[in-house]
Design a protein that fits this description.
alpha/beta, 2 domains, 34% helix, globular
Amino acid sequence: MIVILTGAGISAESGLGTFRDRDGLWTRYDLNEVATPEGFARNPGVVHAFYNARRANCREAQPNAAHVALARLEAEHAEKVLIVTQNVDDLHERAGSRNVLHMHGSLGGALCAHCAHRWPAPRVMTADDPCPACGKRRTRPDIVWFGEYPYYMEQIWEALRSARLFVSIGTSGTVYPAAAFVQDAARAGAETLELNLEGSEGASDFDACRRGPASRIVPEWVSEVLDARR
Ligand code: APR
């Protein structure tokens, strides 16, 4: 199996900002206010405004050549290809990828903080939106915030244990548990490759690294892998 971890950098050229680069989201917003359960409890309106704006940006965005190349790899490679994304946008799916796990949730989902019911997110979400299941007005974006446990971790660890190849694309390697996946995969015997604009925090943990914008280096790498099979 080929396991691919993606981060905000793969969607940067689609116009969706990263978090920690110059002018990144966390240089313009206080993550404690907009991406923690405590911030949501203090002021849900501020949190909903932040995610409503991100949801609108995502609707305007289009998958780029990197997303498209990964969908091609999944469709044409004999091995199973699994994308584990930290991203909450749906650009992988819109590019045609099917095996995608959103470990940090999705902009397209709403979650009831009272009964944990999930439903498709409305374009504009407010704290007054009633839960379709319990009727309570405790609606939040279905996003994993700092201090919360990521989704699909059992599936992800199982995939890392059986990975032949682990590839990390467009992530700074600063947020755990994703930042440790390269070590988990290497420990299980996988070959590891980083594709990133610049070296991530964990760059030295990879067998090989390539630098450049995802829209160029990901399609190049995918073509090499598929050509090598012919
Ligand atoms: N092509 C390839 N890599 C890029 C590009 C690009 N065009 N633009 C930026 N990058 C790289 C940067 O060099 C950086 O290493 O993408 C990375 C983006 O890092 P972050 O902004 O830290 O985003 P990410 O690693 O996805 O953040 C992890 O942190 O804020 C939380 O939950 C949020 O999922 C997010 C997590």
